[in-house]
Amino acid sequence: MDQNHRGTTSTVPGEFVHRTDPADILPTSWTRLRENRFTVSAHWPASHPFFSPVAGDRHDPVLVAETIRQATMLVAHAELGVPVDDQFVMWGLSYTADPEVLAVDGLSSEITVDLVCSDLTSRGNSLRNLRSTLVLTRDGRLLATGSALARCTSALAYRRIRGQRMAALGRPVPLIPGVEPHLVGRAHSRDVALAPGPAPHQWQLRVNTAHTTLFRRPNDHVPGMVLLEAARQAAALTVGGGSAYLPTVMNVSFARYAELDSPCWIEAETVPTRDPSVTTVKVTGHQDGRPVFHCDLTSPSRGLAAAGVGLGLDRRLAG
Protein backbone atom coordinates (compact mmCIF):
# COMPACT_ATOMS: atom_id res chain seq x y z
CA MET A 1 0.00 0.00 0.00
CA ASP A 2 1.20 3.49 -0.79
CA GLN A 3 3.15 4.95 2.11
CA ASN A 4 1.12 8.16 2.08
CA HIS A 5 -2.24 6.39 2.10
CA ARG A 6 -4.56 7.46 4.86
CA GLY A 7 -7.49 5.27 5.84
CA THR A 8 -10.83 6.81 6.81
CA THR A 9 -13.80 5.56 8.78
CA SER A 10 -15.34 4.14 5.63
CA THR A 11 -12.09 2.41 4.62
CA VAL A 12 -11.39 0.53 7.86
CA PRO A 13 -13.18 -2.70 6.93
CA GLY A 14 -14.17 -5.08 9.68
CA GLU A 15 -11.86 -7.81 8.38
CA PHE A 16 -8.85 -5.56 9.07
CA VAL A 17 -9.68 -5.58 12.81
CA HIS A 18 -11.50 -8.94 12.90
CA ARG A 19 -14.83 -7.37 13.79
CA THR A 20 -18.17 -7.71 12.02
CA ASP A 21 -20.35 -5.24 13.96
CA PRO A 22 -19.53 -1.60 13.05
CA ALA A 23 -20.17 -0.65 16.69
CA ASP A 24 -17.20 -2.82 17.70
CA ILE A 25 -14.74 -1.26 15.22
CA LEU A 26 -12.61 1.23 17.14
CA PRO A 27 -10.04 2.55 14.57
CA THR A 28 -11.27 5.25 12.21
CA SER A 29 -8.10 6.00 10.20
CA TRP A 30 -4.40 5.35 10.00
CA THR A 31 -1.26 6.95 8.60
CA ARG A 32 2.15 5.45 7.88
CA LEU A 33 4.81 7.80 9.24
CA ARG A 34 7.95 5.77 8.61
CA GLU A 35 8.77 2.22 7.62
CA ASN A 36 7.51 0.62 10.83
CA ARG A 37 5.87 3.56 12.61
CA PHE A 38 2.20 4.46 12.27
CA THR A 39 -0.45 6.65 13.83
CA VAL A 40 -3.96 5.27 14.23
CA SER A 41 -7.02 7.32 15.13
CA ALA A 42 -9.73 5.56 17.11
CA HIS A 43 -13.11 6.38 18.59
CA TRP A 44 -14.23 5.09 21.97
CA PRO A 45 -18.00 4.73 22.34
CA ALA A 46 -19.53 6.52 25.31
CA SER A 47 -22.20 3.83 25.27
CA HIS A 48 -21.66 0.23 24.22
CA PRO A 49 -23.52 -2.99 25.10
CA PHE A 50 -20.29 -4.62 26.37
CA PHE A 51 -17.61 -1.93 26.84
CA SER A 52 -19.75 0.02 29.29
CA PRO A 53 -18.32 2.50 31.85
CA VAL A 54 -16.93 1.07 35.09
CA ALA A 55 -16.12 2.51 38.51
CA GLY A 56 -18.99 4.93 38.00
CA ASP A 57 -17.54 7.27 35.38
CA ARG A 58 -14.52 5.66 33.76
CA HIS A 59 -14.14 4.07 30.36
CA ASP A 60 -13.62 0.35 30.66
CA PRO A 61 -9.81 -0.10 30.73
CA VAL A 62 -10.24 -3.23 28.65
CA LEU A 63 -10.93 -0.78 25.82
CA VAL A 64 -7.19 -0.06 25.99
CA ALA A 65 -6.47 -3.75 25.36
CA GLU A 66 -9.01 -3.91 22.53
CA THR A 67 -7.57 -0.74 20.96
CA ILE A 68 -4.09 -2.27 21.09
CA ARG A 69 -5.39 -5.47 19.50
CA GLN A 70 -7.32 -3.74 16.73
CA ALA A 71 -4.64 -1.16 15.93
CA THR A 72 -2.00 -3.89 15.67
CA MET A 73 -4.15 -6.00 13.35
CA LEU A 74 -5.10 -2.98 11.24
CA VAL A 75 -1.48 -2.11 10.59
CA ALA A 76 -0.55 -5.74 9.94
CA HIS A 77 -3.29 -6.22 7.35
CA ALA A 78 -3.37 -2.74 5.78
CA GLU A 79 0.35 -1.95 5.71
CA LEU A 80 2.44 -5.05 6.37
CA GLY A 81 0.84 -7.36 3.83
CA VAL A 82 -0.80 -9.90 6.14
CA PRO A 83 -3.75 -11.50 4.27
CA VAL A 84 -7.12 -10.98 5.96
CA ASP A 85 -7.76 -14.74 6.05
CA ASP A 86 -4.61 -15.38 8.09
CA GLN A 87 -5.11 -16.44 11.69
CA PHE A 88 -3.92 -13.60 13.93
CA VAL A 89 -3.09 -14.72 17.46
CA MET A 90 -2.02 -12.48 20.33
CA TRP A 91 0.43 -14.39 22.53
CA GLY A 92 1.01 -11.47 24.88
CA LEU A 93 -0.54 -8.09 25.63
CA SER A 94 0.08 -5.47 28.30
CA TYR A 95 -0.99 -1.94 29.13
CA THR A 96 -0.72 0.72 31.81
CA ALA A 97 -3.50 3.32 31.83
CA ASP A 98 -4.11 6.58 33.70
CA PRO A 99 -7.50 6.39 35.50
CA GLU A 100 -7.95 10.16 35.37
CA VAL A 101 -7.70 10.21 31.57
CA LEU A 102 -10.15 7.28 31.42
CA ALA A 103 -12.95 9.62 32.59
CA VAL A 104 -16.01 9.33 30.35
CA ASP A 105 -17.03 12.99 30.59
CA GLY A 106 -14.94 16.11 30.07
CA LEU A 107 -12.69 14.68 27.37
CA SER A 108 -13.12 13.80 23.71
CA SER A 109 -13.90 10.22 22.71
CA GLU A 110 -11.20 10.43 20.03
CA ILE A 111 -8.04 8.46 20.77
CA THR A 112 -4.69 8.80 19.01
CA VAL A 113 -2.42 5.77 18.90
CA ASP A 114 1.28 6.00 18.10
CA LEU A 115 2.35 2.50 17.06
CA VAL A 116 5.82 1.09 16.34
CA CYS A 117 6.34 -2.43 14.97
CA SER A 118 9.49 -4.36 15.84
CA ASP A 119 10.85 -7.92 16.01
CA LEU A 120 9.31 -8.69 12.63
CA THR A 121 10.05 -12.17 11.30
CA SER A 122 8.86 -13.63 8.03
CA ARG A 123 8.61 -16.98 6.31
CA GLY A 124 9.07 -16.55 2.62
CA ASN A 125 7.24 -13.34 1.73
CA SER A 126 4.78 -13.64 4.59
CA LEU A 127 4.99 -11.84 7.94
CA ARG A 128 4.78 -14.34 10.76
CA ASN A 129 5.66 -12.56 14.02
CA LEU A 130 5.66 -8.99 15.22
CA ARG A 131 5.75 -6.91 18.35
CA SER A 132 3.84 -3.63 18.60
CA THR A 133 4.61 -0.87 21.08
CA LEU A 134 1.90 1.73 21.52
CA VAL A 135 1.26 5.09 23.15
CA LEU A 136 -2.37 6.21 23.45
CA THR A 137 -3.28 9.87 23.97
CA ARG A 138 -6.58 11.63 24.46
CA ASP A 139 -6.94 15.38 23.93
CA GLY A 140 -3.14 15.58 24.05
CA ARG A 141 -2.97 13.82 27.43
CA LEU A 142 -1.16 10.53 27.93
CA LEU A 143 -3.86 7.89 28.30
CA ALA A 144 -1.93 4.63 28.23
CA THR A 145 1.12 2.77 27.06
CA GLY A 146 1.10 -0.83 25.93
CA SER A 147 2.55 -3.58 23.81
CA ALA A 148 1.47 -6.76 22.06
CA LEU A 149 3.18 -9.85 20.70
CA ALA A 150 1.37 -11.42 17.75
CA ARG A 151 1.75 -14.34 15.38
CA CYS A 152 0.20 -14.64 11.91
CA THR A 153 -0.52 -18.08 10.49
CA SER A 154 -1.81 -18.77 6.99
CA ALA A 155 -5.23 -20.38 6.72
CA LEU A 156 -3.71 -23.54 5.23
CA ALA A 157 -1.06 -23.85 7.95
CA TYR A 158 -3.63 -23.16 10.65
CA ARG A 159 -5.88 -25.96 9.43
CA ARG A 160 -2.88 -28.28 9.44
CA ILE A 161 -1.88 -27.25 12.97
CA ARG A 162 -5.37 -27.56 14.41
CA GLY A 163 -6.22 -30.81 12.64
CA GLN A 164 -9.33 -32.46 14.08
CA ARG A 165 -9.88 -29.46 16.37
CA MET A 166 -11.27 -27.63 13.33
CA ALA A 167 -14.38 -29.79 13.71
CA ALA A 168 -15.32 -27.58 16.67
CA LEU A 169 -15.71 -24.59 14.35
CA GLY A 170 -19.18 -23.15 14.92
CA ARG A 171 -20.29 -26.09 17.07
CA PRO A 172 -22.70 -25.01 19.85
CA VAL A 173 -21.30 -25.06 23.38
CA PRO A 174 -23.69 -25.61 26.32
CA LEU A 175 -24.03 -22.37 28.30
CA ILE A 176 -23.52 -23.18 31.98
CA PRO A 177 -24.96 -21.01 34.81
CA GLY A 178 -22.70 -18.10 35.70
CA VAL A 179 -21.97 -16.19 38.87
CA GLU A 180 -24.18 -13.23 39.72
CA PRO A 181 -23.45 -10.41 37.22
CA HIS A 182 -23.12 -7.65 39.84
CA LEU A 183 -20.28 -9.54 41.54
CA VAL A 184 -18.13 -9.20 38.41
CA GLY A 185 -19.19 -5.67 37.47
CA ARG A 186 -21.68 -6.71 34.81
CA ALA A 187 -25.34 -5.76 34.40
CA HIS A 188 -26.38 -8.74 32.26
CA SER A 189 -25.83 -12.47 32.65
CA ARG A 190 -24.86 -12.72 28.96
CA ASP A 191 -21.61 -10.86 29.79
CA VAL A 192 -20.58 -13.15 32.66
CA ALA A 193 -17.49 -15.20 31.80
CA LEU A 194 -17.24 -17.26 35.00
CA ALA A 195 -19.25 -20.06 36.58
CA PRO A 196 -18.95 -21.21 40.21
CA GLY A 197 -16.07 -23.59 40.81
CA PRO A 198 -15.36 -26.39 43.29
CA ALA A 199 -13.11 -24.33 45.58
CA PRO A 200 -12.69 -20.74 46.80
CA HIS A 201 -11.06 -18.48 44.21
CA GLN A 202 -11.60 -21.07 41.51
CA TRP A 203 -14.14 -20.81 38.70
CA GLN A 204 -15.00 -22.54 35.47
CA LEU A 205 -14.72 -20.51 32.30
CA ARG A 206 -18.22 -19.77 30.99
CA VAL A 207 -18.26 -19.83 27.18
CA ASN A 208 -21.10 -17.95 25.50
CA THR A 209 -20.61 -18.51 21.78
CA ALA A 210 -23.71 -16.40 21.09
CA HIS A 211 -22.04 -13.27 22.50
CA THR A 212 -21.53 -11.09 19.44
CA THR A 213 -18.64 -9.06 20.90
CA LEU A 214 -16.66 -11.85 22.57
CA PHE A 215 -17.36 -14.35 19.78
CA ARG A 216 -17.35 -12.07 16.77
CA ARG A 217 -17.42 -15.05 14.39
CA PRO A 218 -17.56 -18.87 14.61
CA ASN A 219 -14.36 -20.13 16.16
CA ASP A 220 -12.65 -23.44 16.84
CA HIS A 221 -11.22 -22.27 20.18
CA VAL A 222 -11.93 -19.72 22.92
CA PRO A 223 -10.86 -16.22 21.79
CA GLY A 224 -8.22 -14.49 23.87
CA MET A 225 -10.64 -11.65 24.57
CA VAL A 226 -12.87 -14.09 26.48
CA LEU A 227 -9.92 -15.19 28.62
CA LEU A 228 -8.93 -11.59 29.26
CA GLU A 229 -12.47 -10.76 30.39
CA ALA A 230 -12.54 -13.87 32.58
CA ALA A 231 -9.30 -12.71 34.22
CA ARG A 232 -10.77 -9.28 34.91
CA GLN A 233 -13.91 -10.81 36.42
CA ALA A 234 -11.88 -13.22 38.57
CA ALA A 235 -9.82 -10.31 39.89
CA ALA A 236 -13.01 -8.36 40.68
CA LEU A 237 -14.36 -11.33 42.63
CA THR A 238 -11.07 -11.74 44.48
CA VAL A 239 -10.89 -8.14 45.71
CA GLY A 240 -14.64 -7.66 45.99
CA GLY A 241 -14.63 -4.72 43.63
CA GLY A 242 -17.64 -5.58 41.48
CA SER A 243 -18.56 -2.63 39.28
CA ALA A 244 -15.95 -0.46 41.03
CA TYR A 245 -13.03 -2.64 39.93
CA LEU A 246 -10.70 -0.67 37.64
CA PRO A 247 -7.79 -2.70 36.16
CA THR A 248 -5.47 0.14 35.17
CA VAL A 249 -2.52 -2.22 34.64
CA MET A 250 -2.76 -5.56 32.87
CA ASN A 251 -0.17 -8.03 31.60
CA VAL A 252 -1.43 -11.23 29.98
CA SER A 253 0.43 -14.05 28.24
CA PHE A 254 -1.09 -17.07 26.51
CA ALA A 255 0.54 -20.51 26.50
CA ARG A 256 -1.84 -22.39 24.21
CA TYR A 257 -5.33 -22.33 22.73
CA ALA A 258 -8.24 -22.83 25.12
CA GLU A 259 -10.43 -25.51 23.62
CA LEU A 260 -14.22 -25.40 23.50
CA ASP A 261 -14.92 -29.01 24.50
CA SER A 262 -13.14 -29.20 27.86
CA PRO A 263 -13.56 -27.23 31.13
CA CYS A 264 -11.08 -24.41 31.59
CA TRP A 265 -10.42 -23.58 35.25
CA ILE A 266 -9.69 -20.03 36.35
CA GLU A 267 -7.86 -19.35 39.62
CA ALA A 268 -6.95 -16.03 41.24
CA GLU A 269 -4.96 -14.77 44.21
CA THR A 270 -3.78 -11.39 45.45
CA VAL A 271 -0.08 -10.62 45.20
CA PRO A 272 1.69 -8.66 47.95
CA THR A 273 2.92 -5.23 46.84
CA ARG A 274 4.96 -2.52 48.47
CA ASP A 275 2.43 0.12 47.46
CA PRO A 276 -0.73 0.11 49.62
CA SER A 277 -2.54 2.33 47.13
CA VAL A 278 -2.80 -0.53 44.61
CA THR A 279 -3.90 -4.14 44.64
CA THR A 280 -2.47 -6.75 42.28
CA VAL A 281 -4.20 -10.01 41.45
CA LYS A 282 -2.61 -12.96 39.64
CA VAL A 283 -5.05 -14.97 37.52
CA THR A 284 -4.24 -18.25 35.78
CA GLY A 285 -6.18 -20.54 33.49
CA HIS A 286 -5.66 -24.31 33.17
CA GLN A 287 -7.27 -26.91 30.96
CA ASP A 288 -6.70 -30.65 31.06
CA GLY A 289 -3.94 -30.06 33.61
CA ARG A 290 -1.97 -27.69 31.38
CA PRO A 291 -1.55 -23.90 31.65
CA VAL A 292 -3.53 -21.80 29.16
CA PHE A 293 -2.81 -18.24 30.24
CA HIS A 294 -1.39 -16.05 33.00
CA CYS A 295 -2.60 -12.55 33.76
CA ASP A 296 -1.56 -9.94 36.32
CA LEU A 297 -4.01 -7.10 36.96
CA THR A 298 -3.43 -4.05 39.16
CA SER A 299 -6.11 -1.65 40.34
CA PRO A 300 -6.40 1.17 42.87
CA SER A 301 -7.01 -0.40 46.27
CA ARG A 302 -10.70 -0.60 47.06
CA GLY A 303 -10.82 1.87 49.95
CA LEU A 304 -8.49 4.35 48.29
CA ALA A 305 -10.39 4.10 45.00
CA ALA A 306 -13.60 4.98 46.81
CA ALA A 307 -11.86 8.01 48.30
CA GLY A 308 -10.79 9.15 44.83
CA VAL A 309 -7.12 8.15 44.99
CA GLY A 310 -6.00 7.12 41.50
CA LEU A 311 -3.14 5.16 40.03
CA GLY A 312 -1.27 7.78 38.04
CA LEU A 313 0.34 6.59 34.82
CA ASP A 314 3.43 8.75 35.26
CA ARG A 315 3.91 7.35 38.74
CA ARG A 316 3.64 3.75 37.52
CA LEU A 317 6.09 4.36 34.69
CA ALA A 318 8.54 6.05 37.03
CA GLY A 319 8.31 3.16 39.49
From TrEMBL:
Residues making up the signal peptide according to the UniProt record: none
Residue ranges of domain A-factor biosynthesis hotdog in the record: 16-152, 183-298
Biased composition (Polar residues): 1-12
Protein name (record): Gamma-butyrolactone biosynthesis protein ScbA
InterPro entries, sorted: AfsA-like, AfsA_hotdog_dom, HotDog_dom_sf
NCBIfam families documented for this protein: ScbA_BarX_GamBu
Protein's organism: Streptomyces gulbargensis
Short name of one Pfam family: AfsA
GN (gene name): scbA_1
Residues covered by region (Disordered): 1-20
